[in-house]
Amino acid sequence: MKIVNDASFQSDVIDASQRNPVVVCFAAEWSHPSQAAVASLEQMESSYAGRATFVTMDFDENQHTADRYGVSVMPGFVVFADCQPRDGWSGVYADTIREKLDQVIPRSSNTPSDAGDRPQRR
User: Model's pTM, two decimal places?
Assistant: First the structure.
């Protein structure tokens, strides 16, 4: 998953969202929930290949962008499409992440729809 920062945000996220939705995960290395969320996204990334781009931003080092999009809790997510933020949320559960993504990013017909390939909420 690509790492972006305040300086590259316009090209790597805003401009790129003209082609496919871009999912931004705001995380920090010291945050265990953030690292769990990044790991979940990395596992899901192939399910959305060709339909979405996944990137991560260090929350602490890119506070300007986090503030601009209302991210105050880690892990925080914002989905961009057509150069605009379309949805945002926080939390680490893989099923919640997938549900939110599926609201913005249509599933391909060959993507499994059952819950067997993802961790369950505890």
Answer: 0.82
117 has a pLDDT exceeding 60: no
DSSP secondary structure code for residue 72 in this structure: -
Rounded Cα gap, residues 92 and 32, in angstroms:
10
Q: What is the pLDDT of residue 94?
A: 75
Handedness of CA 113, 19, 97, 42 (dihedral sign): positive
CATH of 2-107, one of 2.40.50.1020, 3.40.30.10, 3.40.980.10, 3.30.420.40: 3.40.30.10
Sign of CA pseudo-dihedral 89, 70, 41, 18:
positive
- Quick one: which of 81, 80, 82, 121 has its CA closest to 98? 121
